[in-house]
């Protein structure tokens, strides 16, 4: 019988379904897989359900030797931790879980826009520290979000869900950069370059995939182009932002604030960042809702099921 390996504990209903339909082993640890573990499971299992941080690199795939695995059914839409070209060369298909994550991640982007603009984390820290002296007219003044201009880098599923919320929910003006212009149900200005986008925003929101093509798209030059009152929001992948340049821009007041769900060297976050008051820092919460994680799990299992029964893979990446 075909053997399936899942690299992290899943929601109870996804684990129950996996056990019902497959000969499955579910790793009990919540930490990322070590290279030696990845080599072992590549040799022992037909399908693996990996997730964020499980670095299936070309080196790991080469070191594994005699590989039995034919499918990496990633749990998550982002698959930049898998070397898809090396996987393909090794005869391994890669699938992901698009769509299941879209609304939840767009919600977190809105939460970060609001928290950063309205200085919510700073206010909460003040209350928790017992340092709040009471309301007064000029205390913790932030920025109003309604009607402002949001620039969205990446106008795919999540970028469009963010634009929808910004336009219909907050009456915001929208500009964006993507590889191609989109036909959207509301006004939105397509821009040709990230630096031009950065120049005119009140909020710059990142919604591109990670990987070599987008690494450090946000760097010192882009941060310098942003207006001083603007905020950077990252719900994409940490490596899209050159973190040292962001810290410098926040320290010098070159930009007003940042709302981050992801980090360049996740889960390591420099003290220079945690020490700043003008940042909102979330622990990669984008899809962290029970039903969303179950939806992602079912989608990954559907890909495994399709592979094992010879059907077309619903969410093939390569
Ligand atoms: P998607 O539908 O594939 O959209 C990606 C968008 O990025 C597309 O509009 C694409 O342009 C654009 N893009 C790609 N490379 C680009 C480049 N070099 N320059 C400019 N634009 C570029 O993906 P999605 O479902 O929206 O997800 C986006 C990413 O969000 C994922 O890959 C993942 O890393 C991240 N994410 C994070 C969380 C979290 O928990 N924080 C949760 C889910 C996803 P075209 O449309 O023109 O091709």
From TrEMBL:
Per the record, a Pfam family?
2-Hacid_dh
* Stated name of the protein: Hydroxypyruvate reductase
Which GO molecular function annotation, any one, does this entry have? Answer: hydroxypyruvate reductase [NAD(P)H] activity
Q: Output the SUPFAM superfamilies linked to this UniProt entry.
A: Formate/glycerate dehydrogenase catalytic domain-like, NAD(P)-binding Rossmann-fold domains
Domain D-isomer specific 2-hydroxyacid dehydrogenase NAD-binding per the UniProt entry, residue ranges: 110-286
Q: Give the coiled coil ranges.
A: none
The D-isomer specific 2-hydroxyacid dehydrogenase catalytic domain, residue ranges: 5-317
Q: Write out the GO cellular component annotations.
A: cytosol
Species of origin: Epibacterium ulvae
